Amino acid sequence: MTTDPPWWRTAVIYQIYPRSFADASGDGVGDLAGVRGRLGHLRDLGVDAIWFTPWYLSPMADGGYDVADYRAIDPAFGTLADAEALIADAAALGIRTIVDVVPNHVSSEHAWFQAALAAGPGSPERERFWFRDGDAAPTNWRSSFAGGTWTQVADGQWYLHLFAPEQPDLNWNHPDVRREHEDVLRFWFDRGVAGIRVDSASMPVKDPALPEVPETHADGEHPFIDRDELHDIYRAWRAVADSYAEPRVLVGEVWLDDQKRFARYLRPDEMHSAFNFDFMGRPWDAKELRDSIASTLDAHAPVGAPATWVLSNHDVTRPVTRYGRAETSFSFLAKRFGEPTDLGLGERRARAAALLTAALPGALYLYQGDELGLPEVEDLPLDVLQDPMHFRSGGVDPGRDGCRVPLPWTRDGRSYGFGPEDGAPTWLPQPAGWGSRSVEAQQDDPDSMLALYRAALGVRRAEEGLRGESFEWVDLGPDAIAFRRGDVVCVVNFGPEPLPLPAHREVLLASAPLEGMAVNGPLTSTPPTSTPLHLPADAAAWFRA
Ligand code: GLC
Predict the structure, then answer these.
(1) Which atom of ligand 1 is nearest to the CA of 102?
(2) What are φ and ψ of residue 282, in 5° steps?
(3) Contact call for residues 477 and 484 (beta carbons, < 8 A)
(4) 65 CA to middle of ligand 1, Å?
(5) Residue 291 CB burial class (10 angstroms; 0-12, 13-18, ≥19)
(6) Are residue 379 and residue 513 in the same domain, yes or no?
(7) Which residues are catalytic?
């Protein structure tokens, strides 16, 4: 007899960027009441949990990742009562809620930072941050958002911010900082939240000597990335999470090239899982993705943590766009305006990628709008852009607004159903024709991306082989990725030629019509056949061996 693993090991987790999901109030900005009104979409899609990017009080200098008060919902999104009602409504549909926690920094409007500014140099209030004297910035560290990491205040002191100046870094050597975050976790766990996503999880601890970043350094000795002391913080958080009757879950945003160092965050007394950015960044290439799958599974096995599979999020180029380019890998540094893109090819590959990721063992993360096959919006007028990554790069980096455009729900209407008909314009303009990719336009079309995602998540849930954690490679040559889980086999064809499918009893799902099959469409169930079916280029199929 097999018992099902804990929910988070195999969950499908849907990421909501609340500003852009649905607007009930009509102010052009998404809100929690909007999400409550659209939960049926997530039920029909078949997700297990929602991860909300920050919904807290925030001046929105970085889309909410500049938190002014963790215990208050930003008025643009609603109230604490709305959040509680949303958590309850989702739970009633069997959908759990994960919230974002940002330990590295707070907003410059946060009460602690305001108190630190008011109290002046040498005060205990400044000890919670990194304030230093000096004629020049204390270090030459580079910000993740381009530029330096220090800003000078009126009295001459400098404070550290690894991101924007509106996001002062906290001092994790200070007991108040530790205590406050554990309280914040309890605040949300007590409200029924099932887990937290830990923002920039490899960055909060700094070397207090503030040395320059050396050319090379020993593991754990970079001045601000992946320091060994971080693990004590996450062990303490795990203890908080484990103190609940239904243990809460920690998911880390850990960007590290070294998979062994990455896996240290997933030891049994630390986080439960972390985003797999190695996989997300790889190009559309059989060898590259096969290597990533293999090294991911190898790195996770010793610590017993489930892998996660991520195609995109609110920070990166949408898959339909990225996979339609000459360069299909993702890197922040390489983002530029005006890259030629074949959206048809990108969509074809994104469909195959959906079946690939949904078939792999572990948790699946799905960013809002990817189930609709939305492309990156690359022609937003410059004067509507909001992302500090764009501004701090001197306008070279297009920034992340293009994957944050409000969702289309209906074919027609002023905001394609995002907000009420008489509502204000959406906070980022939607492109013309956005309605053709709406939920309404796709839901009854068996060939749509939405139909493919719904079918895939349904089969994933129904098939015992896909529910467990077994995994076995199948060799179908250098241009294919193929693996078997129970009696289900997933094949992806990256090569230019159609690939003959091995012997099978039944095709469960295909991202494109198979060649040699009478019935086309993404969801097909076929009896045994004597003519070999072929999987076309840039397509994936699931079949029963
Ligand atoms: C994470 C978030 C990103 C944010 C940054 C700073 O990388 O995903 O959106 O800008 O942290 O908090």
Answers:
(1) 12
(2) -75, 150
(3) no
(4) 6
(5) middle
(6) no
(7) 199, 253
Q: Which domain holds residue 144?
A: 111-160
Sheet holding 150-152, edge to edge: 131-132, 158-160, 150-152
The tens digit of pLDDT for each residue in 160-199 reads 999 999 999 999 999 999 999 999 999 999 999 999 999 9
Ligand 1 geometric centre to CA of 313 (Å): 10
Q: Ligand 1 pocket: which of 315, 365, 390 to mutate (most atoms <8 Å of CB)?
A: 315
DSSP 70-91: EEEE-TTT--HHHHHHHHHHHH
Measuring from atom 12 of ligand 1, which residue has the nearest CA? 65
User: For tokens 């004590």, what's the residue?
Assistant: 232
Tell which one of 200, 392, 404 to mutate to probe ligand 1, the residue whose CB is within 8 A of the most ligand atoms.
Answer: 200
Cα(17) to centroid(ligand 1), Å: 12
Among residues 127, 160, 193, which one ends one of the domains? 160
- Rounded CA separation 228/37 (Å): 44
Looking at the fold, whether 431 and 284 belong to one and the same domain comes out as yes
Task: Take atom 7 of ligand 1 and give the residue whose Cα is closest.
Answer: 200
Q: What is the 3-state secondary structure (H, E, C) of 498-520?
A: CEECCCCCEEEEECCCCECCCCC
Q: What is the pTM of this model?
A: 0.97
Helix (H) or strand (E) holding 43: helix 39-45
**Contact residues of ligand 1, CB 6 A cut-off:** 62, 65, 102, 163, 199-200, 253, 314-315
Domain count, the chain: 3
Q: Report the distance separating Cα 475 and Cα 467, nearest Å.
A: 22
Q: Read off the CATH number of the domain in which 540 is found.
A: 2.60.40
| Cα 233 to ligand 1 centroid, rounded to whole Å | 19
> What is the per-residue pLDDT across 293-302, written as a single tens digit (0 to 9) for each?
999 999 999 9
